[in-house]
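Severity: low
Component: inverse-folding endpoint
Summary: output formatting inconsistent between runs
Steps to reproduce: submit the following structure tokens with default settings.
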């Protein structure tokens, strides 16, 4: 169907009438509010001698007003359609970029039996969750509560998405979220389900995108994440966020990147002469979901699961950098004791059935943090896999332990919010149970 063109403003006033009407007598108003014609008739702006002389002239003038309003409405609709097309175009461009980088990565990996089976499993997994992905995708592109593609830096992929609550009564707590993706396929839209569900509980979520391998290596990823966190700290108040209640969260590889960014920032603050754009003190707590924090323990584990040693070491910039990007090891270094003391409270969530990144990663990191005086704990969920906590359980709807624990921690100091949480409606189911169970069985993660 051909697109409708905005109606032009037609029927201009005749030259004989135009000079007689000063600007103050125009019947249009700046807010485009309807004007009561009876009021105009009872209290004319002009003397009768200067008024329009016939009902046909009046109808022409009011017709112009109505058509002017229609023109504005069509322009606004056209602008919304244009914004939507731009968002879809940007998403398509990012998808193309990720696909291109994936094929570039395949040249590193080689096409072996293990990777072929994993890609097939990933395709089956995504297919089984399509009902949920469609609903989340519709929300992501069509909801007025989502601000997509906000630029926070000058590097590729330096964008973030904001998920805003409908309720605007006062500053809201904020979660700065770093998505996972094995340091290779991470993308900000992966956090849209979490963003949608937390925003329904009056929590703002900022999903921060970052360069992936081979577009960048771990130092680039940590730099991007830190710059995104800085943007959130400086600007979130403009979007209704509370700068005093900012929480940092990451999932899987994103949990590792976020932890590295947080520790690196603490080291900068404890040092001298380093320019800092945000402060660790601005982060009220750090939440790590299914993350890995000791790379020395993960090199062989990932190699056996298909992320080969050579590729993993390329991502992490060689063996010499493993210590620097292993938060569990770094916090035990005596020479950064002051920096470690600056860290906020840390809560690490993990499923005991996670075979992508073992739950021991969270347990050992929590123990190491406690050993150096940091308030930390590991919260384990019996039998939950790497994707159960982040995808299957949220798509199942109803109540799930991780989500409720997370919301309770964020709202811990807000009795009014806790009272609302107690009577909140259960989340709706997005995917039939049988498809969720099949997806769990074929998941390559």
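Observed output (run 2 of 3):
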């Amino acid at each position: 169907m051909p697109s409708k063109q905005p109606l032009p403003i037609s029927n201009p006033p005749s030259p004989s009438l135009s000079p007689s009407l000063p600007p103050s007598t125009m019947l249009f108003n700046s807010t485009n509010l309807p004007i009561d014609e009876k009021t105009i008739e009872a209290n004319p702006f002009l003397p009768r001698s200067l008024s329009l002389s016939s009902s046909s002239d009046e109808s022409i003038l009011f017709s112009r007003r109505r058509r002017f309003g229609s023109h504005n409405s069509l322009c606004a609709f056209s602008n919304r359609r244009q914004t939507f097309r731009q968002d879809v175009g940007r998403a398509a461009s990012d998808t193309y970029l990720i696909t291109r980088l994936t094929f570039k990565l395949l040249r590193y990996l080689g096409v072996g039996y293990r990777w072929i089976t994993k890609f097939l499993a990933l395709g089956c997994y995504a297919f089984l969750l399509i009902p949920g992905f469609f609903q989340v995708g519709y929300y992501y592109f069509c909801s007025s509560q989502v601000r997509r593609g906000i630029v926070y830096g000058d590097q590729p992929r330096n964008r973030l998405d904001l998920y805003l609550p409908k309720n605007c009564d006062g500053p809201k707590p904020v979660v700065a979220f770093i998505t996972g993706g094995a340091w290779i396929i991470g993308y900000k839209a992966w956090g849209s389900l979490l963003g949608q569900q937390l925003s329904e509980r009056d929590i703002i979520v900022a999903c921060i995108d970052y360069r992936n391998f081979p577009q960048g290596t771990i130092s680039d990823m940590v730099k991007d994440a830190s710059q995104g966190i800085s943007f959130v700290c400086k600007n979130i108040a403009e979007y209704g966020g509370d700068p005093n209640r900012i929480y940092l969260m990451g999932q899987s590889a994103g949990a590792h990147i976020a932890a590295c960014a947080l520790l690196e920032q603490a080291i900068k603050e404890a040092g001298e002469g380093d320019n800092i754009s945000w402060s660790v003190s601005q982060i009220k707590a750090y939440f790590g979901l299914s993350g890995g924090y000791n790379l020395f323990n993960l090199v062989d584990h990932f190699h056996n699961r298909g992320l080969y040693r050579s590729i993993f070491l390329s991502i992490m910039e060689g063996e010499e950098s493993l210590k620097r990007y292993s938060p569990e090891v770094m916090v035990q270094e005596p020479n950064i004791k002051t920096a470690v003391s600056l860290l906020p409270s840390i809560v690490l969530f993990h499923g005991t059935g996670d075979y992508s990144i073992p739950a021991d990663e969270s347990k050992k990191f929590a123990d190491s943090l406690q050993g150096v005086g940091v308030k930390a704990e590991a919260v384990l969920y019996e039998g939950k896999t790497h994707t159960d906590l982040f995808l299957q359980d949220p798509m199942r709807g109803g109540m799930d332990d991780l989500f409720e624990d997370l919301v309770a921690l964020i709202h811990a100091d807000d009795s009014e919010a806790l009272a609302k949480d107690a009577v909140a409606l259960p989340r709706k189911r997005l995917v039939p149970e049988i498809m969720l169970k099949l997806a769990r069985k074929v998941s390559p993660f």
